[in-house]
Each structure stands twice: as structure tokens, then as C-alpha cells.
Amino acid sequence: MSRTGRSVRAGQSYRSGVEAALSRSVAAIAVLFALNWTAFLFSGGRRPPGVTAVAVVFVALTAHLVVRGVRGRLDGSDAWTAVAVAVLAHPVLVLGGGAASVVIGQRCMLTVPALLLATGFLPRTAGRWACLAAIGAQLGTSWPADGPAAAVEGIWPVVATAVAGTVLGPVMRAAGDGADRSEALAAAAKAEAARAAGRREAHRDFQGMLHDEVSAALRAIGQPGIAVDRVREAARGAVAAIAGAPAVLGTTGGDADGTAGGDGIGIPGDRGDLAALVRGLVPPAGAGTTVEAPGVLAVPHEVAAAAVGAAREALRNVADHARARTVRVSLTAPEGDAGFLLLVTDDGTGFARGELRRSSVGVRRSMIRRMEAVGGSAEVVSAPGRGTTVRLEWRDTAPDPGARAVPAKVELMGAAVGDVRRPLAAVCLPFLLVMGVIAALHTWRTPGAGWLMAWYAALATITVALLLRSRHGIGGPAAAAACAFAVTGALASFLVLPLAGLADYTSWPIGAVTPLLTLLVIVRPSWEALTAMALEQAGVVVLVATGPPIAPTLGETVGMTLPALSAPALGVVMGLAIGRTVARLGGVTMRANAVRSAALAAEAVREAREALRRRRLADLGEEVLPFLGATATGRRSPEDPEVRDTARLLGYAVRDEIHIPGVLDRPARDLLSAARTAGCVVTIQSDSDDPHPPALLRLLLTTALGTGPTPREMVLSVTASADTVDAALVVLPGDRSRAGALREAVAGISAVVEDAAESTWVEARVRTV
Length: 769
Fold this sequence. Notes:
Blueprint: H1 14-42, H2 49-70, H3 76-95, H4 104-121, H5 124-146, H6 148-222, H7 228-243, E1 251-252, E2 264-265, E3 271-273, H8 274-279, E4 288-292, E5 298-300, H9 301-322, E6 326-332, E7 339-346, H10 361-373, E8 377-382, E9 388-395, H11 409-417, H12 421-445, H13 450-469, H14 476-492, H15 508-512, H16 514-523, H17 526-546, H18 554-633, H19 641-659, H20 666-677, E10 681-686, H21 694-706, E11 713-720, E12 724-732, H22 736-745, E13 750-755, E14 760-767
Parallel strand pairs: 4-6, 10-11
Antiparallel strand pairs: 1-2, 3-5, 6-7, 7-9, 8-9, 11-12, 12-14, 13-14
Helix pairs in contact: 1-2, 1-4, 1-6, 1-18, 2-3, 3-4, 3-5, 4-5, 4-6, 5-6, 6-7, 6-10, 6-12, 6-18, 6-19, 7-18, 9-10, 11-18, 12-13, 12-16, 13-14, 14-17, 16-17, 16-18, 17-18, 19-20, 20-21, 21-22
């Protein structure tokens, strides 16, 4: 990945945003230096030609860096240009006799851009050599001009800048790369979770479609006495349901529960008119039906699909079992509450609650699970002779998107660079260490200044403590107290330090606040650190204006003061650029990643549901779909006894698939069909319609039916728990060869096989996790 010229746009990587943040931080510093040298150039009288030339070239360079940096296009060529200017400018100042007229802080500005660009945009080895060249140029030319001690002291700030740049660039880039990797892993995990959720939901939808449409149609075909038109209508509905099984939650252009209609795909969360769908429900034959669904009731598509699918099953039960004269369907929206109540009430025979088996697929899957899957509820209330009421209820508990809290600045930065403490340490700690050395040297030289060293030790301790706390956010009171302590101490230092020390590092307390203010401007609201810096600089200006003259002319006074004021401004401006850019990047990437994750999840759901639909239909569709299609179009008559027999056998196969989904392949279904045709009564029971381990159940069935004579009766019961599945197989009558084959088949798993004249039975358990 290129390290040059990046712009921060939604959908780009964290790494590219880090590159833009580095470019813009350099641009911000270049603005400060350009203003400083421009003011210096016009603040005095005649200057040596060398000084004027250096000033013009450096202002031109900083203007160039501003334009390139703001656009995020700084690269290695800019770094080499800045290094060349730094290496040549220092000798020009000395050889032209102008070094004495340019204070040390002003000369450091010539070197700092070169160091930042070299460490940020050159390969590591080349960057180090470039830094050494720029620092060596300043040290070598300052040595004869200022003396060895002043020269060495003068390079400490630029050395700290080089250290900070050397650490900051790789740390931020590594954090950006790590964030990219983490985001990719998170997106993959979300997509896999979505696929799993899609498979589960597709399975449940498919189970509902098998029960509600396919099994009901086969029952209608297999039962004599049902009107041919009604049978064909049921067959057409089942064919449409198989062909239009939804790929994702919510469909358009078909039945409300997604079991019929075209290929339109609704997106989860989109809203549809539930009232219109309820008004379109098909009433049960033979009963007077009243539908009350006034107005428009917008709910998410998946909720509408679940509610109308459950209502359709309730109406189907009325037609099949209730012998009702009247049916009332009522949809209401409780006042002041986002949701609905859908009632399906009939005056039929009703039933006792104990008659409703817990394993009833129609109620459990087609009503209760449908509603629970979308956060609603379903309840069936009935009594013998008093009819039945199905109560479907849903309340919108989704949080208001507008009420979502705005992420804190440090959270936004963390989204872009990970742990914010590492880049903060790279910016702040080198300056704390350098300033500590300078503070110790000048405190030792200045009488009565011992308390300043204690002040600085406390200031450094506060800065480090706040840095360590920055990952979780820094409170406003703590930030305000730290700023007050720093600014008060810096201004009070002139009680013992001379104002003329602004020309060199004697006024070190003015710059000592830089690490703290840089830290706060990055992680706290920017105005706090900017206000503290403004108060400090205003205090310095007042002291200079009201105190003893520090230079013969106003221009020279300005030239001495500006570099001192630039010391804290340097760190604050750099921190402001980094903080704002990275925080903005974090916000953009958080939003972009949310959209991207949602899109990946939706696509994963669609793919998982499509794959499951194809797999589940592959076998059943070979027999069931052609048979239903032929019946629906009249090519096969439901009055033909052979057609009814086929319908009954296929109905058994569909019900087997509902009870033990995904277990039966074509050979297993052929064995079951042959056994039933030969008179064997096959019963398959399951306490859940969730998928079960197919290998064990298929092995038990095929071994029992493929060995020995056709049994008189066979019962397979399946019970699932959180981590195991228990299967019990009973075959009547007993058969020694069958029992032997079953023992051999279940060898190696937890199973018991017993055989007697009356029956052969097997109990087996397998773990599912």
C-alpha cells in the first residue's frame, strides 16, 4: 500500500486515513512556521542578504507544504526538498553573518519540517540519514555562532521532534494496519454469524412452508370428498410456495409470509403495510368471515411476514378442524404504542388445552416461533364448544436511531488508530524528557529558581497520568485543573527568570506546557487547550509590553518573542491537526464500517438462505413439485385413487422432513415409502423441528428397514437437549437379524440394543457440540 497522497473518504482503509492525518499535521505546522518567519521578515529593518534569502525560501517551502499537506499528497519528494532547505539554510545564515540576528528558536523551525517529513514519508533507513543530515547542519553551524553549550542545547528540541516523528509515524501506521485487520476479522465474523442466523431462519421458514403449504396440499389431495377446485387451489398454492421460498426475511410481490410470489427481496427492517396484507387473507371455506383492518399500519417486512403467516395457519386450522360458522379477523394498533394486536376468532368446536400437543408443528412452528423470531408473541385460547382465539401481538422495542449517543472524541480516535495512548506517548514523552533536561540545566544556573523544577516535576507527572487515562477519556474538571496549574506556573516563572530569556531557552517554562496542551487538544474538546494556550501567550505579551525592554526596537522585540510563543503553539497545532483528522476519520470509518457490515451480513443471510433452500428442495422437488404441479394444472385428478395414494405417501415424506429435517436422503425415503406401501405403520416423533444429526438417524432407519422382513410397525422418537440428541427406535415384531445389524451399526457410540419376540429397540445418544 502506497504511503503517499491519501484522502479520507468513506470506505477507505484506516491506513489511508492515518496517512492523511500525518500530512495534515505537517501542513498545520507549516502554516505556523510560515506566519512566524513572515512576521520575522517584516518586523525589523535591514537584514543581511543571507537571512532574507533563507526567509524567502523557507516561507515558499512552508506554503508548498501547506498546499500539499491539506490535500493529503505529501510524499518522499517533499521530504527531500525540506531536508535540502534545512541543510543549506543553516550554513547560509552563518556564512552570511546573520546567525546572530536569528534566535535559536527561529533556527529550529528550519529543521523541524525536514525531520517530520523525513520520519513520516521516507523509508526508515533513508529517513534516519536525512534526520542526521538536518540535525548535523544545525549543530555544525550553531557551534561556532553560539558556542558549544548553546549549540548542543539548541538541538534538543529538534532531536525530540525527530524521536517523536520516528515513533509516531510507525505507531500510527501499525495501528491503522491493525485496525484494518481487526475490521476484516470482525466483518468476517459478522458475516459468518449472519450466515448461521440465515441458515437457522431459512430452515424454520422452510419447515413452515412444508407444513403450511405442501403438507396441507397433499392432505387435501389424499382425502376423498374435498371439492376438486379447492384441491387444485391448494396444489397451486403449494407449487407457488416451493417456487417462491424467500431468500431473505420479507418478500415483495407474493404472499405476506413469503411463501408465494415472485423473486422480490425485501430488506430486513424495511416497512410494509400490515393492514393491507391482513385484508388480503383468504377466508376459510364454509364460514362467514369478517376482516377488520382499517387504515395503514406500517411494520418491518419480516414482522408482517411472520404475523400474516401465523394468521394464515390459524385460518387453515379453522377450515380443517373448527367446523365454525363465523370467523372474525381483527387488527388493531394500541394507542400511543408502536405495535399491533392481531386476533383470529372463530365460533367452532374449540378444544381443551390439554389436547394441544406441545409438539404440534402447526401451532409451534407456524404461529409461536414465527412471532417469537421477530420479537412478538402468539397465544391460542380455546375451550370445548366455545370456539378458539389466536392472539398475535408485537411491540416495537427497537431503539430510536436519533437517540444514539454521539461517540466521544477518544472513541472516534480509537476507531482509527486503536489504543490512543501509543501515538500520544510518541508525541508527548520525548518533549517531556527533553524539557526536563533543559529545566534542570537552567534551574541550576538561575538563583531562586529551585521551585520551578518542582513545578515541572509535578507538571510532567500530571501529563503522564492523564496520558495513561486517555484511553478511557479525561474528565473536564481534571483537564481544567491541569491547564490552570500549567499556565499559572509558566507565567509565574518570570518572577525569577528574565524576560530577555525569551531569546534562548532560559524561558523554558513557556514551552514546558507543550506536552500537556498537546495531549489535551487531541483527546479533549479543542477549545480547552486552545484557551489555555491563548491565556499563556496573552500573559507573555502583557509581561513583555509592561516590563523592561528586551530589545532596542519593536521589530526586534517581536522577533525575539514570536519563537518563544511558537513553542507551545507547535505542539498544540500539530495535536489539533492530528486529533481532528483522526477523529473525523474515525467517525467516517465507523459509519462506513457499519454500512459495510450490514451489507455483508445481509448478503451472507441471502446466500445462506438460498443455499439451504436449494439443498432442501433438491430431493423433495424431484417428486413433490412435479406431482403438485400436475394436480394443480389438472393433468392428474385428485379423484383418481392412485393419485390419492401417491399424495398420502408424499405427505408422509413431507411430514418426516418436518420432524427430522435434513435427515432423509432419496434412498432413505424410498425405504420408508416401500415399507408403508407394504403395510408398515411408521411413526416419527420429535420434540423439536430444529435440525438433528443426520448420520445417526438415517443409519437407524435404513438399517432397520433394510434388514429382515418388513416390520409391522416402527416408531422413531427424537429428543434434543442443549448438547445431546437422544434417539429411540422401536420395531415390531422383534427380529434377531435386524437386532444384530443394528448392534453392528451403532458400535462405537453410546447406544443400547435389545431384542425380544415382541420388539427390537435401540436407544442411542450423540453429542451435538
